[in-house]
């Protein structure tokens, strides 16, 4: 009998039962009120008169009417840059203790996003809520005694002026609660190694010393790590090394494209739980096994707004038009794409995070990430979001019985005619013309706008197959391996030309 695991599982289940039923809409109103009251004496709060907004009869409406939208470039130029000049109380009281460095999927240049102690506390609180939600899953008591391997960026943060800098996964891991350190792997020493390949090599060397019950990280880098561990120990699958592995906590990108190749590394099925941790905060997590949707963290330092994802509301650079309406949680509907806008305890205000989502359950505030505002493929009216592209790739995997963990594409001109030019990462030898025909037919059936585009400006589809390793090498050459780095699914023609030149040299 695993007494410790049974006690921990029982405590989690009891806490879940004693926690009152949440009301996401009311929680959001309370979060906004606290945000406004806390920041009303900052430079930003005085400029936009937070005191008056907070006392308005309709606080949410007043907030949306009086504070403009910001993307990173706008808020950094107008406000956060003052922090780097030594000013305090700019968009949040005091000065941030950390800056999250993030190039994401958009380029080499790192954004420097403030992370306050209040945000660290909010991330911890949401993490505890996610752990509590494990009571909804049928996990054995032994699971709660096993190690948890978190593969993010290095926890060896850079000290600069009066703060520390690093990727959000490294910042979060460097702030894990003391009670959690006994479970945390790979441990502080290995986690501080900056070189990703060296860190994975050390993980492989130590792997058999650990009894891992759960792993966490971005799917592409987790897959590479697992493959390295398996190869190092000359095993058939990861369960030969970690027989008690029960849970994978995914995040950063949709898990769907990786599902088939990920499962090939396992000896048996495990529970996959999705999360949404961004450089700006811990936004959502999957709270129950009946759905693969994720639940917004509506009571932990982040206020959400939702802009209908329509062409007239999106500027050419992916930013929001000033006229774009923002909806509250009370006003949204299911099966509609929205641009996600957040205000946070790190002093991000009406901030365009760059993701699009749709609600699967409004009452529970459950969503799915559908894509990126900048990765919406609409050059010739095809209006394809990333979730539709993912569905197309999943269709190819099923029809041709292959694995395609990575892909990218561009609406590219060939002799002044537009084609969707795909690069699919697969080790399988499949006729590219058959793949092109199949995904073209699938998308025409799945999306009426794509079907219309194919009868007009979009002349066809071209497919190239390359090894998945080329995608990882591209990320390594352009950004940095591991951490929060994700492959861009849709590229503009200029970036795509760089990509094709890179592929040609491999």
In terms of DSSP E residues, the strand content is 15-25%
Shape: globular
Question: How would a crystallographer describe the biggest sheet?
Answer: 11 strands, mixed
What's the CATH C level of the domain at 377-504? Alpha Beta
Q: Biggest sheet: strands side by side, in what order? A: 6-3-7-8-9-10-11-15-14-13-12
CATH structural architecture of the domain at 377-504:
2-Layer Sandwich
The CATH topology assignment of the domain at 377-504 is GMP Synthetase, Chain A, domain 3
Gap between N and C termini: 54 Å
Mean pLDDT: 85
Question: What does this 3D model show about the protein?
Answer:
With 506 residues, the chain is α/β, with parallel strands linked by helices. It has a domain at 377-504: GMP Synthetase, Chain A, domain 3 (2-Layer Sandwich), CATH 3.30.300. The protein is 36% helix and 21% strand. It has 17 helices and 18 strands. The strands form three sheets. It has an eleven-stranded mixed β-sheet, sandwiched between helices. It has a four-stranded mixed β-sheet with strand order 2-1-5-4. It has a three-stranded mixed β-sheet with strand order 16-17-18. Helix 10 crosses helix 11 (219-232), helix 13 (386-400) packs across helix 14 and helix 14 (432-446) packs across helix 15. The longest helix has 17 residues, at 117-133. It is globular, with a radius of gyration of 23 Å. The relative contact order is 0.11. The model is unreliable at 1-12 (pLDDT under 50). Residues 391-494 form the GH3 C-terminal domain.
